[in-house]
Description:
By secondary structure, this protein is α+β, with helices and mostly antiparallel strands. The protein has four domains: 1-47 and 295-431, no CATH class; 54-281, no CATH class; 437-475 and 686-818, no CATH class; 491-670, no CATH class. The protein is 48% helix and 18% strand. It is built from 25 helices and 26 strands. Strands 1, 2, 3, 4, 5, 6, 7, 8, 9, 10, 11, 12 and 13 form a 13-stranded mixed beta sheet that branches. Strands 16, 17, 18, 19, 20, 21, 22, 23 and 24 form a nine-stranded mixed beta sheet that branches. A hairpin with a 2-residue loop joins β4 (105-111) and β5. The longest helix is centred in the middle third of the chain and has 42 residues, at 433-474. It is globular and about 100 Å long. The chain starts with a helix and ends with a helix. The model is unreliable at 430-438 (pLDDT under 50). It comes from Albibacterium bauzanense. Residues 306-422, 701-811 form the ABC3 transporter permease C-terminal domain. It is a multi-pass membrane protein. The chain crosses the membrane at residues 21-41, 301-322, 347-374, 394-418, 447-465, 695-717, 747-767, 779-799.
Amino acid sequence: MIKNYFKIALRNFWNNKVLSLINILGLSIGISAALVIFLIVNYEFSFDRFQKDADRIYRVVLDVKYNGGTEGHSAAVPSPLSTAIQNEVTGIDATVPVMQFQGDATVKVSVLGNSENPVIYKKQSDIVFTNQQYLQLLSYQWVANSKQVSLEDPFTVVLTESRAKLYFPGVAATNIIGKQLTYNDINVTVSGIVKDLNEQTAFTALEFISFPTISKTNLQYQFMMDVWNDWMSYSQLYIKISKGNTAERVEMQLKDILNKYDKEANNADRSMAYHLQPLNDLHFNNKYQGGGNRIVHKPTLYGLLSIAAFLLLLGCINFINLTTAQASQRAKEIGVRKTMGSSKKQLVLQFLSETFFITLIATIVSVALTPLLLKMFEDFIPSGLHFDLLNQPSFVLFLLLLIISISFLSGIYPAFILSNFKPVLVLKNQISAGSVQTRNAWIRKTLTVSQFVIAQFFVITTLMISKQINFSLQADMGFNKEAIINFNQPRDSITTHGKLLLNEIKSLPGVANASTGFLAPADKGMSFTNLSFIDGKEEITPNVNVQLRWGDPDYIDVYKIKILAGRNVERSDTIKEFLINESYAHELGFQHPEEALNKFLKWNGSNMPIVGIMKDFHFQSLRASIGPVVFGGSNGQTFHIQLKANNVDGTLWRNTIAEIQKIYKGMYPDEDFNYTFLDDTIANFYESEQHTANLLRWSTVFAIIISCLGLLGLVIYTTNLRGKEIGIRKVLGASVAQIVSILSKDFMQLVLIAFVIAAPIAWWVSYKWLEDFAYRTPMSWWIFLLSGLVMMFFALITLSMQTVKAARANPVDSLRDE
């Protein structure tokens, strides 16, 4: 019986090749999108699922609330907190401090005992200071040495297998134990080797230096191991609570610790609290940035799933539409089968098997296309994601469920419609096209409208997101961002080489101006500082976060930041005076910014005069409103180079940058010269939006293709059905244009109805999305008009492919059998 079903399915496929190929193409686009999105979503949601007792593992985080309503969130905590928890908090199975290695780590490896000529590895990443419980928490598999004592002593390090092979190629793991490594100026001994995790995890470290090493070196001061009222992003802390214990109980004990060691944590101006962030929240919560963890926007993943569902729905709608439209052509076949004894159940299974056959072919095509789609979307694909059909059982299971689900959803309605035909009426030719089409026309029209609603929605939202991104990139940031490059010099040579390097760069003919300092006016990094305003004898601390920038006086000229009142800072090696922006002047209570001149701000225990007022500029993306900024006069390790206008062939910038690199390498022959253009840095503010826009563009293309394929299939069927009517009209004198208009009118009405439905939905979604931007583009009427015209254009092109052909056909061919 099953063999017979598939023989009939193959025969039906061959007899209706065009419509079958349209169905396969529509379904394969939807399935391909679903497969790629499944790989992405499954990868992101698989982070740290492998962890044993993951529900009992938390990261300790810090939340701050100011009375002015401002909130602060930190993934970092004060360094001494881990020791306090170990000694004073009950119900904890493991306390795991994770201190990121600061700066660029240069690793020297003494090979074969030759310490005079070590092998040097520059800028090694993923190095942490931690304790033995880190390795136990993550259930590392040991390759060499004991997991109980490898990180107990100072000046020891455990390596992952990949790093061990990098540093000691060809050496057996057991022979690496006892070898010496030097991290900058810290000499350590390899005490153990573990296998790489090879799992999706927030714990990405590859080298583990023993935590007791910190207390035996100057790192105890750099890591502020005795400081409770300050913390840096390199200091994170994880705990594993005991069975039966709760996060709430632990947080109550952490509250006592905070009040005990930081008396100023909670006062009239602010309140602070430690909270426990669940392990499964680390990968998705962007409130707690830092630690090098990649944060994923969960709503974006749900949006991806919605896109996959929409594209699959479009393919299913195509199938339902075209199958029900063919109903009258298969009516006699059904009548004969029923007369020969076929039951309704058998007919339903037959039509479902035909759907399954089409879906199976579409799935095979989709699997073949998946690697190509992953390549197309590589900017959106996580770097660790890969496609391996034979070694991904979850993917195979998803594929099987997808085939079954699509076959059922696409085939069940047409199967019941076709199997319900009455054999007596069918064989008397009383199941006419008119009766069948009248009964089901509204369903096909509804499904067609639904297709174009989805496609129209994609068009409008894509145009709106692209408009906002363009608005953000072209917006006046309040400073010059064109033709500026930034690079850093080694931190330990600012005083020895900084001025010489700056002067040599300034002397280059392609350089307009140059400065040294800290971050650019807008940068991916953030630097908040604590300031108090001296109002006469009274010290006032406004409840605001103040951004800090510094540089020499040329910094202001390089970026063309306008000074509205007062003067620029004077040249100095240390900060002695401040410029403030308009927003900060208003926060301090001045109606006119210039009133803040010659007032004082208390910073690092010293009173700093306000010598100038800067015009407001954006120091973040346009999502955030402009806040208070101060600028101090001081040298720094970051160079800010303004290039002269480039020539036509682009060689001036290229040659100037090459000359800067030559000067840099002359002073630092062992250092890499890495620079960035400031406008590229600003463009990266909107990297997520650009990926979303790119994804929506492809989704829009796919949605339009699928919708137009469905429309084409219906037009083919309709023109075949109305062939005699078209022939009669031509005989009676109707022109090609008139016939095309008659055939197209009903379909264009459906597209117009889809626009009317989609426009308000797309407006609302776009409006909610734009709410994330403090500065946003207006929702212009022309966006909706343009998107409607785009959809009408593609619909007309699709219709004309068949209607013109039908209208120009010889009427004799359609009327000869009358």
